[in-house]
């Protein structure tokens, strides 16, 4: 993927995206880095945000160098960097997810883990895909009253979202102490996170793509340490990257939407 200097980053450069100002564009546009220009070795890893497809970004990362992958995959992924999204068939979407998960498995260390945040529509698909290579550990459900995948008819409202937790091997890192401290108990917190309400209390970010910070913080505490490498192949507006930086992790994120990438840069830079 290459960025053409002729391609406008915005339809109208005087009408910036929500959350961006002209000063933001002046600051962050010159700092955009493309996946095509990314070079890494095991001895020379590089953190930051990169413009490009998630799977292409993962291919730039050396084998067994990443400690943790946390991501919220798009349900309507773009077919290329230059085209707006076209609906995929379920078979195409399955193959699309399979491709980036194969790369995720390759880049994870033997003790590494992956967390996939998703709605109910494709939750079973991720169970199937992860079971092909990873060691599936559990499905976490959390109380998400703002779940987007609501039924179109006046039937049961969906108020729960899923997080699939899988590891590369049976010997993986899991920090039991900080997880116990979350509920001040000697017992491990369960896989239903009913204590995190994404309802009337606003999330810690005004950006709609971001999940509640407590969800991401809990994942990072459980499955990573400071200075560990964390990757989000679909960084969106940078919510996971922002919290990773706040908690002292080294973060790599990929995003194909230029507007969202700049918002992500601004968010992470604010930490």
Task: Give a summary of the structure in a few sentences.
The chain is α/β, with parallel strands linked by helices and 271 residues long. 30% of the residues lie in helices and 18% in strands.
Notes on the structure:
With 271 residues, the protein is α/β, with parallel strands linked by helices. The protein has one domain: Rossmann fold (3-Layer(aba) Sandwich). 30% of the residues lie in helices and 18% in strands. It has eight helices and eight strands. Strands 1-8-7-2-3-5-4-6 form an eight-stranded mixed beta sheet. Helix 3 links the parallel strand 2 and strand 3. The longest helix is centred in the middle third of the chain and has 18 residues. The radius of gyration is 18 Å and the shape is globular. The two termini are 29 Å apart. The N terminus is likely disordered.
Topology:
Layout: H1 22-28, E1 48-51, H2 54-59, E2 66-71, H3 90-107, E3 108-118, H4 123-133, E4 135-143, E5 160-167, H5 176-182, E6 192-193, H6 213-223, E7 229-232, H7 239-246, E8 250-255, H8 258-269
Parallel strand pairs: 1-8, 2-3, 2-7, 4-6, 7-8
Antiparallel strand pairs: 3-5, 4-5
